[in-house]
UniProtKB/TrEMBL annotation, chain A:
CDD domains: HATPase_RsbT-like. This is Anti-sigma regulatory factor. Residues 34-133 form the Histidine kinase/HSP90-like ATPase domain. Pfam families: HATPase_c (PF02518). InterPro entries: HATPase_C_sf (IPR036890), HATPase_dom (IPR003594). It comes from Sporosarcina quadrami.
TrEMBL record, chain C:
PANTHER family: PHOSPHOSERINE PHOSPHATASE RSBU, STAGE II SPORULATION PROTEIN E-RELATED. Gene3D superfamilies: KaiA/RbsU domain, PPM-type phosphatase domain. PROSITE patterns: PPM_2. It comes from Sporosarcina quadrami. The keyword Ribonucleoprotein does not apply. Keywords: Hydrolase. This is PP2C family protein-serine/threonine phosphatase. Residues 121-331 form the PPM-type phosphatase domain. InterPro entries: Bact_Sigma-Reg, KaiA/RbsU_helical_domain_sf, PPM-type-like_dom_sf, PPM-type_phosphatase-like_dom, PSer_Pase_RsbU_N. SUPFAM superfamilies: KaiA/RbsU domain, PP2C-like. SMART domains: PP2C_SIG.
Length: 133, 116, 334
């Protein structure tokens, strides 16, 4: 069974709400302090990207279990400008660019699985998962 | 490396896009100029002016940017004029033979109303 | 989390908390290398510290634990940036290795054979400002004629280097053609115009020495004028010829001129890395370059070239701002 909830990202305060929700869920799943902080930081980065570059979007957080493992899944989606060159955005060094998609390599490092779907003019969806080891 | 003392200001006077360049144009700053010019070079029948009266030094990379701009604009039926060249820069245009194909104006013969 | 590291950290810290001795700190410093070896992130280090502290002193005030949680949060970004930095350093090392290979390939690919003509002494030097050279020298040897093309690709580094192999193969195709300077530039111009993108251009000086008539004929495609030193008058004359940079206009026409060399005369062909040398006090004047050349007028062509290079690079504190190339053709004294 998937438990989940979501936060609409419109103002900067919504980033804080998404963080809070993420931390609570991570705690419930049983992650330790450091991993809670990592998951929260990842959510924060994703939400901030939505707030700065897409205008509005949504962060969904799910507790998941699969093959005896439990974890947390974050889905960040928006209908913003989309990312034209995904490969470039995922390269190290992009984080410091301060542009659209900055921080994505960081999110990927903080989590275990990372997938991004983006269509220019349509929007971006990022799905990222962390398992409790 | 981004803001290495080159400023490019765009003003329009009598439907001529005038780029006022201030600073030194070298391998580090030339990309700044190139990017600014690339934004307009595809415009059909563009009339552009590069005002280099505040440019003391330009190396061959900068020259390459000017020539690239000239070629792109000419290919789209436009016209480029380069003004305000100091002695050193005008020598550069003479040596390269560019003064024969590009409309250039030296600093001395600049109009009074060409500056703001 | 590596349990072993946590256990050892706890022991070392426990000793230090008791004694506060320098020795324990030294042990700690040695131990800290383990974190890096085992690729432990900064936030994990703090977490290790927190659990070790909790095992040793469980009754500390709540603020201490909260502050450590706060610090963990702070260090996550720090750790990310650090890892990204490490990954960039590795990438840079890989690029550097590729560059070294590319430089070697460039050297091999662009090799040219210095002419060995009757009565002519040839000297040259070409030094890149960075790793790859944007200047290029090509010698062409035909019966009774020694020719050289000195080219400067506008723009530096790798794109310029790639462009050069095109010139080289264009020139190779000229072996049996009419090699008069104006004709050569016309042919190369058409090749370049067809093949390069809009912001890449090449300036080229082409000189040809006829060893029967002692005539040096030349043409220029937007290149720095050459200098002719006359041993009779001890004066320099600029050898300039009208002509546009290569690759700008397909139908460009190149003028050709010539000069007769007397014994001891020499012609100096250069790129703008020589004439546009800059020091802290401004540009090095042409007159300064001329006097350097004149000082060594009685030496061999190679000695003159080497001397000008060493003097000009010294004046620039050995930091070349542009690729630097000089070729000298000198008529031998019998």
């Amino acid at each position: 069974m998937n438990l989940g909830s979501s936060v609409e990202i419109i103002t900067e305060w919504d980033i804080v709400a998404a963080r809070q929700l993420g931390r609570n869920e991570a705690k419930q799943v049983g992650f330790g302090t450091v991993d809670q902080a990592r998951i929260t930081t990842a959510i924060s980065e994703l939400a901030r990207n939505i707030y700065l570059y897409a205008g509005k979007g949504k962060i969904e957080i799910e507790r998941i279990s699969e093959a005896g493992l439990v974890g947390i899944k974050i889905i960040a989606s928006d209908e913003g400008p989309g990312i034209p060159d995904l490969r470039k955005v995922m390269e190290d060094g992009f984080t410091t660019s301060g542009g659209l998609g900055a921080g994505m390599p960081g999110v990927k490092r903080l989590m275990d699985e990372f997938k991004v779907i983006s269509e220019v003019g349509e929007g971006t969806t990022i799905i990222t998962t962390k398992w409790l080891h | 490396m981004q803001d290495m003392n080159l400023q490019v200001e765009l003003l329009e006077k009598n439907s001529v896009q005038c780029f006022k360049v201030v600073g030194e144009i070298d391998a580090y700053t030339a990309p700044v100029l190139k990017e600014r010019l690339a934004a307009v070079e595809k415009v059909e029948g563009l009339h552009a002016e590069l005002d280099l009266s505040e440019v003391d030094y330009m190396d061959s990379t900068g020259l390459g940017v000017c020539v690239g701009f000239y070629k792109a604009v000419s290919n789209n039926g436009g016209h480029v004029k380069i003004t305000g060249l100091n002695r050193r820069l005008s020598r550069l245009f003479e040596i390269t033979g560019l003064n024969e194909i590009i409309d250039i104006e030296l600093k001395e013969s600049e109009d009074d109303n060409a500056t703001l | 989390m590596p349990q072993e590291v946590t256990k050892q950290y706890k022991e070392i810290m426990s000793k230090y908390l008791e004694s506060q001795s320098e020795e324990d700190l030294y042990v700690g410093q040695q131990f800290s290398r383990r974190f890096i070896e085992k690729d432990i992130a900064p936030e994990d280090v703090i977490s290790i510290h927190k659990s070790a502290l909790f095992e040793l002193h469980p009754n500390l005030r709540k603020q201490v634990w909260d502050s450590l949680d706060f610090l963990i949060e702070m260090m996550i970004h720090y750790g990310l940036t650090m890892r990204e930095h490490q990954s960039l350093v590795r990438k840079q090392e890989a690029i550097q290795m590729e560059m070294n290979v590319a430089t070697k390939v460039q050297d091999t690919l662009l090799k040219t054979v210095e002419p060995d003509a009757e009565g002519l002494d040839v000297g040259w030097i070409s030094q890149p400002a960075h790793q790859m050279n944007g200047d290029y020298i090509y010698f062409l040897n035909q019966e009774n004629a020694s020719s050289v093309a000195v080219a400067d690709v506008i723009g530096k580094g790798i794109p310029a280097a790639l462009c050069m192999s095109m010139i080289k193969f264009g020139m190779d195709g000229l072996q049996n053609e009419n090699s008069s300077p104006d004709n050569v530039l016309g042919i190369i111009n058409r090749i370049v115009e067809k093949s390069v993108d809009d912001s890449m251009f090449i300036s080229m000086f082409y000189g040809k020495y006829n060893s029967i008539t002692s005539t040096f004929s030349y043409a220029s495609a937007g290149h720095e004028p050459a200098l002719h030193f006359s041993s009779g008058t001890s004066a320099f004359t600029e050898l300039d010829a009208r002509g546009l940079l290569l690759g700008v206009k397909k139908e460009a026409i190149y003028d050709e001129h010539s000069v007769v060399l007397e014994e001891g005369d020499f012609v100096v062909m250069m790129t703008d890395g020589v004439t546009e040398s800059r020091t802290e006090n401004g540009f090095i004047e042409m007159s300064a370059i001329k006097s350097l050349l004149a000082e060594k007028k009685d030496e061999s062509a190679q000695e003159i070239a080497d001397y000008v290079y060493s003097e000009l690079s010294r004046m620039q504190d050995y930091q070349l701002s542009d690729d630097f190339t000089i070729v000298i053709f000198k008529k031998k004294t019998v």
